[in-house]
Write a structure and sequence with these properties.
Layout: H1 5-14, H2 16-24, E1 37-38, E2 46-47, E3 52-53, H3 55-68, E4 72-78, E5 83-88, H4 89-105, E6 113-117, H5 122-134, E7 137-140, H6 147-157, E8 161-165, E9 167-170, E10 173-176, H7 177-187, E11 194-198, E12 212-214, H8 215-225, E13 235-236, E14 240-246, E15 254-259, H9 261-273, E16 282-285, H10 292-304, E17 308-312, H11 324-332, E18 334-339, H12 341-350, H13 355-359, E19 367-370, H14 377-387, E20 391-393, E21 405-406, E22 423-424, E23 430-433, E24 446-451, E25 461-462, H15 466-474, E26 480-489, E27 495-500, E28 504-507, E29 510-513, H16 514-521, E30 527-537, E31 541-550, H17 558-572, E32 581-584, H18 598-605, H19 620-631
Parallel strand pairs: 4-17, 6-7, 6-8, 8-11, 11-12, 16-17, 16-18, 18-19, 19-20, 31-32
Antiparallel strand pairs: 1-2, 3-13, 4-5, 9-10, 14-15, 15-25, 21-22, 23-24, 24-26, 26-27, 28-29, 30-31
Helix pairs in contact: 1-2, 3-4, 3-5, 3-10, 4-5, 4-8, 6-7, 9-10, 12-14
Bound molecules: coenzyme A (COA) and adenosine monophosphate.
Adenosine monophosphate binds near residues 372, 421, 485 and 500.
């Protein structure tokens, strides 16, 4: 059957506002929008400027009111603890109301910020929804970030309350959250008023008498006093739903801000048309709520569309084996799986012949979606072969909140070109510009940009930093959003996303800033200068690799200093930085104007062809870098 994509994309192009007004009919509003877009508002305009709504109502209450309360909404499956639990929409609503009651008892109201630092447990998702219910703004911080990163976020969004659990569970270790939280709160200049702590049976956290509140006790109280019965707080469609911090080009993370109305409209559209999901089916995004994929497609997208969502606390391999994903799909009747290519590379490495796949019949599985990093054709082909379902690569960013380009299963799949996430989704007009801002011919590599305005669901700005947003995303190519990805559009409109144009690297599907790591390297007293680049890694796609130049008077063993720097990055940014490869070198290669030649270093590390930069100061330094890399087995 021919895909309806061309006609739907053309419909959007012909009248974007009418297109999104029609999509908005799928959302329940307390005040329906009378117009789609206000070009004068916000940084680049705002969607649904006169509408009012509540996101939690749309995710939960409306399904219950429609008589679907007994349908499964959340499936928790933890190979880490052996627990499996299903929650109906009724049950989720009851928990969310109690958490909302507890939060409001702690003084949280509309517009207040709440930081959530929790592992992949149902309470994390319920807390996000509880914030939405109150019109409060959540900011989820990924559990692999260290205290300093958390403190930066507490300060940036001046959070009122922090919600956490006693621990996270990583293979082979229990990650005690509370000491880290206490340290972050102590470090932050802004003072958190209250900390709601969920005690997990695996580890009991110490509580601060005047600040910490036991999660379960607070819920019981909210139920007893009736505050758990409060309804949804009506917010403007343009009010913020959440802030999600993501890596920028410096150590200062960017607070990507998402609104309520446009976000729901876009996610609802994508669930049906991109992912091809019908209410009642099971959707599984094997990611973490700390990332954008988790926000959009573990929490909001599936619940808006009346789907059950899977909360999986485990890894693709080692918990206990490379068959875990297939077990979850088979046991919970998952229709669509969404994960990062790195997860498949990990599975393939442990089970190249797909023996585990054969153990678990998966008749429910219809499509596999991959995103977060470039999907290498070998991984796609392996998945296609063993799962025998279409594999869809789609491209998006924390900033956009949903796919910029993809292959829309709901509209009918388009022919696949390996290495390409297919076509622009309605809402996005993708162009490729050279550095001077001129459009390049089809098939030519350049800067991938999106014509403004961005569609509903995309960031409205950075939290408290409109100017930074303007400068970093909208200024370089006037009239466009700069994706900071480089790529190609071919003659048939297929987009190929090749590399970042900034210092962001993608490690195991996680977005990391090498600039932030350089800032930490520079904190070591013996380090004069450093450069961190992303080098190819078969499993994680890229891993960071640091080069250190020591101060002239340092006589200590280089190996010792390297170890200390690795420890420092782990302490400052967190284990998720995966910063383990570091080497001391005599000098860094630079241009005559003093710019470090990171691009050339990366090509040398990855054994790609490279040309001697014409502006290089001293070519001999590149030989020294090559030697250092080879000595480290790279
Ligand atoms: N809390 C605490 N620590 C965490 C953590 C968390 N939530 N998540 C990761 N870490 C730690 C890991 O334990 C590891 O620590 P270590 O250095 O002591 O081994 C470190 O951070 C690096 O983690 P990661 O890069 O994820 O490597 P890994 O070896 O643990 O796992 C994969 C590799 C490929 C299995 C894993 O990255 C994966 O499942 N990726 C899927 C990608 C994904 O979900 N992306 C989200 C966007 S779709
Ligand atoms: P994040 O904000 O963590 O989602 O990371 C976004 C970045 O990941 C993008 O800017 C791309 O560099 C990369 N990325 C995400 N999806 C893809 C994809 N399908 N193909 C290539 N790169 C991708």
């Amino acid at each position: 059957m021919a895909s309806r994509y061309p006609e739907v994309y053309a419909e959007w192009q012909a009248n974007p506002e009418a297109f999104w007004m029609k999509a908005a009919e799928k959302i329940d509003w307390t005040q329906a929008p009378t117009k789609a877009f206000d070009a004068e508002a916000g940084v680049y305009g705002r969607w649904f400027p006169d509408a009012e709504t509540n996101t939690c109502y749309n995710c939960l209450d409306r399904h219950v009111e429609a008589g679907r309360g007994s349908q499964t909404a959340v499936i928790y499956d933890s190979p880490m603890t052996g627990e499996k639990r299903d929650y109906s929409f009724d049950a989720v609503l009851s928990e969310v109301k109690a958490i909302a009651g507890a939060l409001s008892d702690l003084g949280v109201g509309k517009g207040d910020r709440v930081i959530i630092y929790m592992p992949m447990i149902p309470e994390a998702v319920f807390t996000m929804l509880a914030c939405a219910r109150l019109g409060a703004v959540h900011s989820v911080v990924f559990g692999g970030f260290a205290a300093h990163e958390l403190a930066t976020r507490i300060d940036d969004c001046s959070a009122k309350v922090l919600v956490t659990a006693s621990c996270g569970l990583e293979p082979g270790r229990t990650v005690a959250y509370k000491p880290l939280i206490d340290h972050a709160i102590e470090m932050a200049h802004h003072k958190i008023e209250k900390c709601l702590v969920l005690q997990r049976p695996e580890l009991q956290a110490d509580m601060h008498a005047d600040r910490d509140v036991d999660f379960r006790t607070a819920l019981e109280q909210a139920r007893a006093t009736g505050s758990a019965e409060n309804g949804c707080v009506t917010v403007k469609a343009t009010d913020p739903l959440y802030i999600l911090y993501t890596s920028g080009t410096t150590g200062q993370p960017k607070g990507v801000m998402r609104d309520n109305g446009g976000h729901m409209v876009a996610l609802q559209w994508s669930m049906e048309n991109l992912y091809g999901m019908k209410p009642g089916e099971v959707f599984w995004a094997a990611s973490d709520i700390g990332w954008v994929v988790g926000h959009s497609y573990i929490v909001y997208g599936p619940l808006l569309n009346g789907n059950a969502t899977v909360i999986f606390e485990g890894k693709p391999v080692g918990t206990p084996d490379a068959g875990t994903f297939w077990r979850v799909i088979a046991e919970h009747n998952v229709s669509v799986l969404f994960t990062a290519p790195t997860a498949f590379r990990a599975i393939r490495r442990d089970d190249s012949d797909g023996e585990f796949v054969k153990k678990y019949p998966m008749p429910s599985l219809r499509t596999l979606f991959l995103a977060g990093e470039r999907a290498d054709p070998e991984t796609i082909k392996w998945a296609e072969h063993h799962l025998a379902v279409p594999v869809v690569d789609h491209w998006w960013q924390t900033e956009t909140g949903w796919a910029i380009a993809g292959n829309p299963a709901g509209l009918g799949l388009l022919p696949v070109k390996y290495g390409s996430p297919t076509h622009a989704m309605p809402g996005y007009k993708i162009e490729i510009l050279d550095d001077a801002g001129h459009e390049v011919p089809a098939g030519t590599l350049g800067n991938i940009v999106v014509k403004l305005p961005l569609p509903p669901g995309c960031l409205t700005s950075f939290w408290n930093a409109d100017e930074r947003f303007r400068k970093s995303c909208l200024e370089e190519f006037p009239g466009y959003y700069k994706t900071a990805d480089a790529g190609i559009l071919d003659e048939e409109g297929y987009v190929f996303v090749m590399a970042r144009t900034d210092d962001i690297i993608n490690c195991a599907g996680h977005r990391l800033s090498t600039g932030a790591m350089e800032e930490v390297c520079a904190m070591h007293p013996d380090v004069a200068e450093s450069a961190v680049i992303g080098v190819f890694d078969e499993l994680k796609g890229q891993i960071p690799c640091g080069f250190l130049v020591l101060k002239a008077n340092v006589s200590r063993e280089a190996k010792e200093i390297e170890k200390e720097v690795v420890r420092l990055v782990r302490e400052e940014i967190g284990p998720v930085a995966a910063f383990k490869m570091v080497m001391c070198v005599k000098r860094l290669p630079k241009t005559r104007s003093g710019k470090i030649l990171r691009g050339t270093m990366q090509k040398i590390a990855d054994r790609q062809e490279w040309k001697m930069p014409a502006t290089i100061d001293d070519p001999a330094i590149l030989d020294e870098i090559t030697e250092a890399l080879r000595a480290h087995g790279h």
